[in-house]
Write a structure and sequence with these properties.
The chain folds into two domains: 124 residues, Four Helix Bundle (Hemerythrin (Met), subunit A); 208 residues, Translation initiation factor eif-2b, domain 2 (Rossmann fold, 3-Layer(aba) Sandwich), CATH 3.40.50.10470. The strands form four sheets. It has a seven-stranded mixed beta sheet with strand order 6-5-4-7-10-15-16, with helices on both faces. α1 packs antiparallel against α2 and α5 crosses α6. It has eleven helices and 16 strands. With 350 residues, the protein is an alpha/beta fold. It binds 5-S-methyl-1-O-phosphono-5-thio-D-ribulose (MRU). 5-S-methyl-1-O-phosphono-5-thio-D-ribulose (MRU) binds next to α2 and β9.
């Protein structure tokens, strides 16, 4: 694996506590916020200071460390930390990485001995570090599928900003770009939050990877003109049957891919697999305020009196996914049986 030097750290533990790059203000301003308690961290997750499935899990894990730091001197500190864990888990409902990371912190909490804060910090840093290394491995597996001279389209932001670093979909794109395989990288703007225009473009350009933005409604026309061979996205959750829950608009891209013969790749770490949920229809899809659709960058754009529906995610049926790329390997045409066999092979005897 080639060396990669990050150009920024969106999530960092410092002597002062947790430091987050405020993603609401990118690309205009690079502002870092400090957090000293779990309640403020939960609000930051809800309000999208930090977003992206693995990133909110890692952030919440550090939130548990802050909680132990804040409440450690109280006799009932464990129940106070437990209350903060519940608050953090409720910050956003769809990404399974959030509850996955908090379950790991809860399990570590049950085992802590002499130094709870140090031990919990150790666990949070492990979660963070493992995510970066999973992304690096996913990058290699995904890039191996891509032929030289291909062009790709990505959606939302599944990059360093959305993970512990390097990225899932953008990890594949970074690796493929580094290997000289890519002709062109396209990114959808991704209304209403514009994660593509604001965040994906910002972080690719920081790495000197040229990016061409398209409006979300240009994607099928781009495919019709044979300008891309791949759509590569991340996921907030992959259900046991392979259904993919990801940023609203992923489903329509997958439908358009199948019609045009464009391959659909979903890159997601094992922490995004939810084998306890049989299918995508059983996942709670977050609905966000209608003001996000009715306005843009704080300005009202819709006609006064219009109302809006604003689901933040959608469900792509497994049948529309050509490849699911994880750190442990690739599943082509994922379905319930293949996912069950894949996860069973990773955990023999369980
Ligand atoms: O609402 P967001 O910005 O948190 O949505 C993020 C996405 O949908 C990403 O594609 C997903 O979390 C994967 S990030 C590696």
């Amino acid at each position: 694996m080639t060396e990669y030097t990050p150009t920024f750290y969106a999530i960092e533990w410092t002597a002062a506590g947790l430091r987050l790059l405020d993603q609401r203000r990118l690309p205009g301003e690079e502002v870092y916020l400090e957090f000293g308690d779990a309640v403020a961290v939960a609000v930051a997750i809800r309000d999208m200071v930090v977003r992206g499935a693995p990133a909110i899990g890692i952030t919440a894990a550090y939130g548990v460390v802050l909680s132990a730091q804040q409440h450690g001197s109280h006799a009932d500190w464990r129940s106070r930390v437990d209350q903060d864990i519940r608050l953090l888990a409720a910050a956003r409902p769809t990404a399974v990485n959030l509850v996955w990371a908090l379950e790991r912190m809860r399990a570590r909490l049950a085992r802590v001995t002499a130094e709870p804060v140090r031990e919990l910090l150790d666990e949070a840093e492990q979660i963070h570090g493992e995510d970066v290394s999973a992304n690096r491995r996913m990058g290699v597996h995904g890039a191996n599928l891509i032929g030289k001279g291909s062009s790709v389209l990505t959606y939302c932001n599944a990059g360093s900003l959305a993970t512990g670093g390097y990225g899932t979909a953008l990890g594949v794109i970074r690796t493929a770009w580094g290997a000289g395989k890519l002709e062109k990288v396209f990114a959808c703007e991704t209304r209403p939050w514009l994660q593509g225009a604001r965040l994906t473009a910002w972080e690719l350009l920081r790495d000197d990877i040229p990016v061409t933005l398209i409006t979300d409604n240009s994607a099928a026309f781009l495919m019709q003109g044979k300008q891309v061979q791949w759509v590569i996205t991340g996921a907030d959750r992959v259900a046991a049957n392979g259904d993919v829950i990801n940023k609203i608009g992923t489903y329509q891209l997958a439908v358009a891919c199948r019609y045009h013969g464009v391959k659909m790749m979903v890159a997601a770490p094992l922490s995004t697999l939810d084998m306890a949920t049989p299918c995508g229809q059983q996942v709670t899809i977050e609905e966000r305020p209608e003001t996000e659709v009715l306005g843009l960058a704080g300005q009202a754009v819709a006609a006064a009196g219009a109302v809006a529906w604003n689901p933040a995610f959608d469900i792509t049926p497994a049948a529309l996914v050509d490849y699911l790329v994880t750190e442990e390997g690739v599943i082509a045409a994922p379905d319930r049986e293949k996912l069950a066999a894949f996860t069973a092979a990773l955990n023999p005897g369980s």
